[in-house]
Amino acid sequence: MNLQAHDFLDGLGIPYERGNFPQETEKGAANVAACFGMRPRQMVKTLIFEIDSGERILVMVGGDQNVVSGHLKKVAGSRNIQLASPEAVKQATGYVIGSIPPFSWQPDGFRSFLDVFLMDEPVLGVGAGVWGNEIFITPANLVIASRASVVNLTDRDRPALLD
Questions:
Q1: What pLDDT is stored for residue 162 in this prediction?
Q2: Distances in Å between the alpha carbon of 108 and those of 93, 130, 139, 143, 161?
């Protein structure tokens, strides 16, 4: 099955590999990682947040990581930010929560942020848009495809914005 995310990467000439897992797999990065013999950190959570201005942003962290609220507020430039509702996520991305690809749907100017610690991984898994389908891509190519800014979203002891 060729999905919009595949067509997008093919159009940019970005290399990736496809993966499939049983659709009965319980939701969650650890469960998907287990299907491929990978670590949960390598399965990217694509989270949509909403800023008080109405802007929505994409945040990507490892499946076993949590976003440090203060760091997210710093990189987003707003003190009033919250996780978008499932309805707002569907409206913004065209996808339901669980297999949102981190590229192919963003309009120009849409801001995306990737946690710097994902750059240490050899390969990352991201949703392809349909549960049971995964895309494996290098961190550098994920940054290109998603037009993401690389920032620290998960380590409280280091600054959010990188030099």
A1: 86
A2: 13, 24, 21, 15, 23
Report d(CA 105, CA 90) in Å as an integer.
11
Sign for the pseudo-dihedral over CA of 34, 131, 116, 65: negative
Q: Which of 144, 100, 142 is nearest to 122 (CA)?
A: 142
Are 97 and 86 in contact by the 8 Å Cβ rule? The answer is yes
Q: Which domain holds residue 111?
A: 4-151
Q: pLDDT for 120-136, tens place per residue?
A: 999 999 999 999 999 99
pLDDT 10s digits, 49-104: 999 999 999 999 999 999 999 999 999 999 999 999 999 999 999 999 999 999 99
Q: What is the CATH number for 48?
A: 3.90.960.10
Dihedral pair phi/psi, residue 17, rounded to 5°: -125, 150
